[in-house]
């Protein structure tokens, strides 16, 4: 038998979309897989949908968010290859076959990454299938689209690097990928689209809701500060963290202005952790300058 692939899906109140996610796994026609659903205690009929699929392993109960659910699923997983499928997304046809072929060709691999698309077939919002999008680097982890779901990791890599940090409810994927780069993760680049992020009103990251954007961007700033507080960082990681912090502060201030709250925008730029500080303003100014130079060079 080929190695078991374990797919872990965190889920909460996704009765309208979870079936499509499960079906996208079944359409892989893979000979040896398990699909683990970690449900946060859904009340909308999600569990009724899941009961239609007897092959699933379903655990339902309170959790501390998506990354707590992922950690629980990874702990339960029996496979040597592990992937994460969001409850509102789908795998592209042939994804598992490509992943299997890569791991079979190099038994020392710890990860593979393919491309991802954001949006539905009739409305593509963003194509993240280029080589730069697939790269495992500090720049991509912190400044790009992490496409964590288009990445498959070996069991031994999780054992080596550890679980997702529960300090971050939204940015733990970026944190995990930073740790992967620091750990020297041995990975392979797959020039194929493996995953599709679907757009909808309840999406955690693909949203136009200003309050949700503020939470997401604020957590990116917190992630940057978390790493910048550490000693002995590689120069590239420190540069990327500084850029992420500056980008985040500038975007937060702009969103506050759009909300009609200039005072909040000023506080965003002139205070840090409740204390007067010019660091956010300096970081934001540097970010804007770098962005302008990059656009001019392009």
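Sequence proposed for the structure above (298 residues):
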């Amino acid at each position: 038998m080929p190695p078991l692939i374990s797919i872990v899906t965190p889920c909460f109140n996704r009765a309208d979309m979870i079936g499509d996610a499960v079906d996208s796994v079944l359409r892989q026609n893979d000979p040896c897989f398990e699909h683990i659903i970690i449900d946060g205690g859904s009340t909308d009929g999600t569990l009724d949908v899941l009961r239609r699929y007897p092959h699933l392993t379903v655990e339902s109960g309170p959790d501390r968010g998506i990354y707590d659910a992922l950690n629980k699923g990874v702990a339960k997983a029996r496979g040597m290859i592990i992937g994460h499928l969001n409850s509102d997304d789908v795998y592209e046809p042939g994804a598992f076959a490509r992943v299997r072929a890569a791991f079979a060709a190099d038994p020392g691999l710890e990860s593979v990454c393919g491309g991802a698309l954001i949006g539905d077939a009739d409305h593509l919002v963003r194509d993240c299938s280029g080589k730069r999008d697939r790269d495992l680097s500090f720049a991509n982890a912190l400044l790009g689209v992490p496409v964590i779901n288009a990445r498959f990791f070996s069991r031994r890599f999780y054992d080596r690097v550890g679980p997702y940090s529960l300090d971050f409810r939204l940015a733990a994927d970026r944190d995990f990928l930073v740790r992967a780069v620091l750990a020297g993760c041995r990975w392979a680049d797959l020039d194929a689209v493996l995953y599709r992020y679907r757009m909808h009103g309840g999406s955690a990251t693909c949203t136009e809701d200003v309050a949700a954007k503020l939470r997401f961007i604020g957590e990116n700033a917190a992630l940057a500060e978390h790493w910048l507080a550490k000693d002995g960082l590689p120069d590239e990681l420190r540069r990327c963290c500084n850029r992420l912090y500056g980008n985040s502060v500038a975007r937060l201030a702009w969103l506050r202005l759009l909300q009609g709250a200039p005072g909040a925008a000023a506080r965003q730029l002139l205070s840090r952790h409740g204390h007067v500080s010019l660091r956010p303003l300096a970081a934001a100014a540097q970010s804007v300058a770098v962005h302008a130079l990059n656009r001019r060079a392009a």
